Amino acid sequence: MRKHIVAGNWKMNTTVAEGVELAKAVVEHSAQVPADVKLIIAPPFTHLYPVAEVVKGTAVGLSSQNCADKEKGAYTGEVAVNMLAGVGCEYVILGHSERREYYGETDAKLVEKVKLALAQGLSPIFCIGEKKEEREAGRHFEVVTEQVKNVLFELTPEQMANIIVAYEPVWAIGTGLTATAEQAQEIHAEIRKVLAEKFGELAEEISILYGGSCKPSNAKELFACPDIDGGLIGGAALKAEDFIGIAVSFLLISCYFKVCSFL
Ligand code: PEP
């Protein structure tokens, strides 16, 4: 069975003190979340060390939001994957649309980052998604397929087994516009189909998360879709109740299916 995952991308928000409090609140409320749902939080770099102390020994995983495309050396301002692993990160978000758009991250650079992260034992949360104009032009399948092929097709099956994919339509990120469950499901199924072309049955094991204005009120409908294995959450991850509320959706879905099986 695929892993259910709810990951919070805090982006460039919170001070260190606020981040530590938020992490504590997530840990405290995480008991409400079904045991088969993995919670991950991705604070800014500066928060990783103190937040790692908070999540140590708990079920909450730690992710960074980016990493350098080089192993070490004279790259001022960059943070290497061994530094992230050393501080307790197990995951790294890569290819977020904000990195692609504002910092010119190309697929070629992402191949380097993904491979470096994997070599250091980190699981990349690899983001893909089309822009508004691409969806309006009916090119969303094509764009997402290209992003998958350009980066993930460069991996071996052993490497691919440690990847989490996040489908994040750019037009839905931070806009309040959410893809409908039908829109999200059809593209998640397509991503899995493309992965199967290269990786065969392994594609069934890969968790594919949805991201884009996901909140407690819409998570249930999205997560009930067969190819949606959880969410990458931005704004709603900044409030522990909302973040946990999203993850608790899995509990409500499983209760619903249990009740249906009795009818
Ligand atoms: C994100 O940036 O990964 C994201 C999903 O943001 P939001 O939930 O705020 O749309």
Question: What does this protein structure show overall?
Answer:
- By secondary structure, the chain is an alpha/beta fold.
- It is 46% helix and 15% strand.
- The chain has 11 helices and 8 strands.
- It has helices at 16-29, 48-55, 81-87, 97-102, 107-119, 132-136, 140-152, 157-160, 181-199, 216-223, 240-262, and strands spanning 4-9, 37-42, 60-64, 91-94, 123-128, 164-167, 208-211, 230-233.
- An 8-stranded parallel beta barrel has the order 1-2-3-4-5-6-7-8, surrounded by 7 helices.
- Helix 3 (81-87) links the parallel strand 3 (60-64) and strand 4.
- Helix 5 packs across helix 7 (140-152) and helix 10 (216-223) crosses helix 11.
- The protein starts with a strand and ends with a helix.
- Phosphoenolpyruvate binds at residues 9, 168, 173-174, 211-214, 232-236.
Question: Which structural class fits the helix and strand makeup?
Answer: alpha/beta
List the bound ligands: phosphoenolpyruvate
Name the overall outline. Answer: globular
Largest pleated sheet: 8 strands, parallel, barrel
pLDDT < 50 stretches? none
Question: How many beta strands in the DSSP annotation?
Answer: 8
Strand content: 5-15%
What is the element string, with H for helices and E for strands? EHEHEHEHHEHHHEHEHEH
What is this structure's SSE topology?
Blueprint: E1 4-9, H1 16-29, E2 37-42, H2 48-55, E3 60-64, H3 81-87, E4 91-94, H4 97-102, H5 107-119, E5 123-128, H6 132-136, H7 140-152, H8 157-160, E6 164-167, H9 181-199, E7 208-211, H10 216-223, E8 230-233, H11 240-262
Parallel strand pairs: 1-2, 1-8, 2-3, 3-4, 4-5, 5-6, 6-7, 7-8
Helix pairs in contact: 1-2, 1-11, 5-7, 7-9, 10-11
